[in-house]
Amino acid sequence: MQGLALVASGAVAEGMRGLDEVNAAVVGGELTDLVAIGLSSCYLIAACERVRDYDRAVQWCTRLKAFCMKWGFRPLFAVCRTQYATICMWRGTWLEAEEELRAASDELAASRPAMTSDALVRLGELRRRQGRLVEAAELFDQAQPHGLASLGHAELALERGDWRAAAEHAVRYLRHVPTQNRTDRASGLDVLVRALTSAGDSSGARTALAELTNIAALVGTVPLRAAASYAAGFVALGESRPDAARQHLEDAVDLFLQSGAPFEGARARLELARALSALGRVDSAAREAQRARDLLTELKAEVEVVKARKLLESLAAADAGAPRQGRSVDRTAGLTRREVEVLRLVAEGLSNQTIAERLFVSEHTVHRHLANILGKLSVSTRAAAVAQAARRGLLA
């Protein structure tokens, strides 16, 4: 338990050494208490899951499975199966994950009813990834008050576009996780960064991102570094800094690929496509979006497939509307000289307040200019406005 506590605090190397010592004793036959043997293996798997060291977790899941089958520890085996299912979800083997979760849920319902929430919340997460959102919501409700149920509801709120509710669910989760428990906080911070960014709360998103980045640096595992890079790219894109977003999201794609996470990698590719589009690199954006759609189609992640398809359609429309030789096109879209000036400052990643100071006007005036720009370009976000301006050659 000391080893697990150290891992949770971020002292991963020290905590894993302690867990390794205990489990080496188990393998060496030095322990005779069957409950202690089972729990020590379970704690090690839990530690691996917290830091997302899935390769190591698979090895110990196999050992614990053999131990439980030999001695008839069915409830402990069921707990192990829920943890193994998370690994299957991460690696994209969703059918296997469902089989493990259903078997674990049935076993726990029969022998340990109070422990069924762990299997239910993970099955809810699988349903969310599959795009079966109504079922996911029902499972998260059944799993309450499990902490991960709050994060599940936060993700569902993000899908609905209810940024405020998403942030509230994430904060609710984080309120119950001490700051010393760094590995558990990472999951909540990941959702909170995206919710606050989507809501336009750049300051709050940056604060959450800073904590997540520090945790990823402290823990050091590839999946956590990937999550931090993805979050940083999301924030940069929300702040209309497409080139910074591109670099963070390229890192996220590479790290997710390295850690064998097709779903997370595909979502990172979609955000990378948006960043590339904002830079006017429509062909490159389309390639990333196509790769993402292919991965998501293979996984049968229906909601994400729809997002990828819509993005590809918008990129195709943008490419079709791009200036061609011999074609007369209104490059300015009716923007005034001042509106173009404001748009160029937005492309630099400046806030409304900073733009106002730079142009010696009020912040309200900048807000009005931006509203006019969005209307004339027929877009709804600053990032989309910058992307279209780049394609029209207005940012040079």
Question: How would you summarize what this structure contains?
Answer:
With 396 residues, the chain is an all-alpha fold. It has 21 helices and no strands. It is elongated, with a radius of gyration of 24 Å.
Could you give the topology of this structure?
Elements: H1 2-9, H2 12-27, H3 34-50, H4 54-71, H5 74-91, H6 94-111, H7 116-130, H8 133-143, H9 147-160, H10 163-175, H11 182-198, H12 202-219, H13 222-238, H14 242-258, H15 262-278, H16 282-299, H17 302-320, H18 337-347, H19 352-359, H20 363-377, H21 382-391
Helix pairs in contact: 1-2, 1-3, 2-3, 3-4, 3-5, 4-5, 5-6, 5-7, 6-7, 7-8, 7-9, 8-9, 9-10, 9-11, 10-11, 11-12, 11-13, 12-13, 13-14, 13-15, 14-15, 15-16, 15-17, 16-17, 18-20, 18-21, 19-20
Notable features of this structure?
Serine Threonine Protein Phosphatase 5, Tetratricopeptide repeat; mainly alpha; Arc Repressor Mutant, subunit A
CATH topology term of one domain: Serine Threonine Protein Phosphatase 5, Tetratricopeptide repeat
CATH class of one domain: Mainly Alpha
Beta-strand level of the residues, as a percent range? under 5%
Helicity level, as a percent range?
over 70%
Mean pLDDT: 86
Helix and strand run: HHHHHHHHHHHHHHHHHHHHH
The Cα radius of gyration reads 24 Å
Number of H/I helices: 21
The end-to-end span amounts to: 59 Å
Shape, principal axes of CA atoms: elongated
- In CATH, the homologous superfamily of one domain goes by the name Tetratricopeptide repeat domain
Runs with pLDDT <50, length 5+? 324-330
Let me know the largest β-sheet: none
The CATH architecture classification of one domain is Alpha Horseshoe
